[in-house]
């Protein structure tokens, strides 16, 4: 969840990084009394995200700057739409411009890509979820953007749920213990509310992880035929999740195998920043 405290802390740090001793260009060239109006304009269509983050870049720079958001997070827009208007000291607007744009472009890019995945599986009932493949320090922002695009969030941190992946299972196998029993023994120590996700990359692993207590079985890099077989094996005993090899060309076929969740790392690690610009006007 993108809280107000996280938003303020991260945006303030970004502003300090960008102008540690002030904006020498704006101070040198722009008279202190000059006022400006600037429009956040879409250069291409997309889905908006990061409005409050964009606004914070300006208000943290100068509390007297006003930001009027014309679109809400999750709203679609077309090229030429004015997404927000900024009014205040020209120096302050110019100082905050790049940081505000960086956040809005990045978050809107993620929201737009997520919306494309969600649209591709429309009617299947499948959830499109993100992963922990996020930019360090910006996870809350990027996950907010996924929700803006209609997607769902996977576990947020390592502390939120058990998710045993291939390397975890490889270590367990090295001990020589029976996998199902080793999982049951480990999970018996957890609170009953802890969600357990186990990743498998072969069909023959599914019975053991179900016997071990998995709530979700993550079918990683399965073929479509194996996904269908995996869903049949899992039945109603756990949630079937697919990952690996997911792109906009394949996601519909994966959804139609019967899985309930498709996790897509590309939502956050490969989204292109959307082309947004700040067009300034001087009163």
Automatic annotation (TrEMBL):
Role according to the record: Involved in the catabolism of quinolinic acid (QA).
Every Quinolinate phosphoribosyl transferase C-terminal domain range: 110-279
Transmembrane segments: none
Pathway field: Cofactor biosynthesis; NAD(+) biosynthesis; nicotinate D-ribonucleotide from quinolinate: step 1/1
GO biological process: NAD+ biosynthetic process; quinolinate catabolic process
Species: Microbacterium keratanolyticum
Protein name as annotated: Nicotinate-nucleotide pyrophosphorylase [carboxylating]
Record-stated family: Belongs to the NadC/ModD family.
């Amino acid at each position: 969840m993108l809280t107000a405290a996280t938003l303020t802390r991260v945006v303030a740090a970004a502003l300090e990084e960008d102008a540690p001793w002030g904006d020498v260009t704006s101070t040198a060239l722009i008279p202190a009394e000059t006022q400006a109006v600037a429009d956040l304009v879409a250069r291409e269509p997309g889905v908006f995200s990061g409005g409050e983050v964009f606004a914070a870049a300006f208000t943290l720079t100068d509390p007297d700057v006003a930001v009027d958001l014309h679109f809400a997070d999750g709203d679609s827009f077309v090229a030429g739409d004015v997404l927000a208007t900024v009014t205040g000291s020209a120096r302050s607007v110019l100082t905050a411009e790049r940081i505000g744009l960086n956040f809005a472009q990045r978050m809107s890019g993620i929201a737009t890509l997520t919306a494309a995945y969600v649209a591709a599986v429309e009617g299947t009932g499948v959830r499109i979820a993100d992963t922990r493949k996020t930019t360090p320090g910006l996870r809350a922002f990027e996950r907010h953007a996924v929700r803006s695009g209609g997607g769902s969030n996977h576990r947020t941190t390592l502390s939120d749920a058990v998710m045993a992946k291939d390397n975890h299972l490889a270590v367990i196998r090295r001990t020589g213990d029976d996998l199902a029993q080793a999982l049951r023994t480990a999970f018996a120590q957890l609170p009953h509310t802890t969600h357990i996700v186990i990743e498998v990359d072969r069909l023959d692993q599914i019975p053991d992880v179900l016997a071990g207590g998995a709530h979700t079985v993550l079918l990683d890099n399965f073929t479509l035929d194996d996904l269908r077989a995996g869903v049949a094996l899992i039945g109603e005993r756990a949630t079937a999740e697919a990952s690996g090899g997911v792109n906009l060309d394949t996601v519909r076929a994966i959804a139609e195998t019967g899985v309930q969740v498709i996790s897509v790392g590309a939502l956050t690690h490969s989204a292109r920043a959307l082309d947004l610009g700040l067009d300034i006007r001087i009163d």
